[in-house]
Design brief:
- By secondary structure, the chain is mostly helical.
- The chain has one domain (41-288).
- It is 80% helix and 0% strand.
- The chain contains 15 helices and no strands.
- The radius of gyration is 19 Å and the shape is globular.
């Protein structure tokens, strides 16, 4: 945990040093690079849902496996269906769920309001300095009018949330490492182009931290089982992504890439969160508390 934390802070610092002020428009090259990193370094943390399911549901028989896989796939397809039927409602719910899900990253279990503020700011901070870029990004998934409303609403959430977080970071009961991690994440989303900031955060913080915690939670599994769980579901996601790309309508490459990233993550996040909830993973984190001096 200490190594991952230090590495993330270091990478964030270099990204802010060399990436701040760069004119990084949403183009195919940037999106492709982001997609590669998200698939190779971000998606694998969700691939461990297989091990979580084995440990939680005792999947020893074929019918149990089929039931789990069917439920997982149906949940993902349901998310995609909601987007097709009501994209605006889908996107708002996805942002709220993401904020709640991301709020579990840091050691803020004893500070619930701060924990929620941190999760919300990951979503809303880009609206302050990158409002036009964020509107254009959202407009690739939902209509431009709703995109504008969401970004404007994000600004109103960011100011009080940011002030509260800033004040709370002076709390002596919050460890210095957690403060540095919080500052690094917020600086990324405030100062860097949204796609770049999200890629660094999702791969370097959210996914990496989940993998480390999962290693301790899933201790009964061998290293080989752990590695297989990381590789094979990720390959399945890549295959589905390629198939989706080939079946996509004749739109611009940038729009299709953004939709694959956001809708794909949404389709995987919902069943992923469900599996974690059923496994009592969050309750286990509370008992461990992952002290700041890790």
């Amino acid at each position: 945990m200490k190594f991952q934390s230090s590495l993330f802070i270091l990478i964030s610092s270099f990204a802010l040093l060399f990436g701040y002020g760069l004119d990084l428009n949403v183009n195919f090259q940037l999106l492709l690079l982001a997609l590669i990193f998200l698939v190779l370094l971000g998606v694998p943390h969700g691939s461990l849902d297989v091990l979580f399911a084995i440990q939680t549901f005792d999947l020893k028989q074929l019918k149990h496996w089929l039931k789990f896989i069917g439920s997982y796939v149906i949940a993902a397809l349901l998310v995609i269906s909601i987007w097709l039927i009501a994209p605006n409602i889908f996107f708002v719910c996805f942002l709220l769920l993401s904020a709640l899900h991301f709020s579990d990253d840091l050691n803020l279990i004893d500070f619930k309001a701060l924990k929620l503020s941190y999760g919300a700011l990951i979503i809303t901070l880009p609206s302050l300095l990158f409002s036009h870029e964020l509107i254009d990004l959202y407009a690739m998934i939902i209509d431009i009018k709703t995109s504008t409303y969401l970004v404007e609403a994000s600004k109103f959430i960011t100011v009080p949330g940011g002030l509260y977080l800033t004040v709370m970071l002076f709390n002596k009961n919050i460890g210095i490492r957690t403060k540095l991690e919080t500052f690094s994440v917020c600086a990324l989303f405030l100062l860097l182009q949204p796609i770049l900031a999200f890629s660094i955060y999702f791969c370097g913080m959210h996914s990496a931290r989940h993998l480390i915690r999962s290693h301790f939670f899933l201790r009964k599994f061998t290293k080989r089982a752990f590695l297989n769980a990381l590789i094979f579901p990720t390959i399945a996601v890549i295959i589905v992504g390629i198939f989706t790309w080939l079946m996509a309508e004749n739109k611009t490459l940038e729009i299709e890439m953004v939709r694959i990233i956001f809708i794909g993550l949404a389709a995987l996040t919902v069943p992923h969160a469900w599996v974690l909830q059923k496994s009592n993973f969050q309750a286990w984190l509370i008992t461990r508390k992952f002290k700041d001096d890790y």
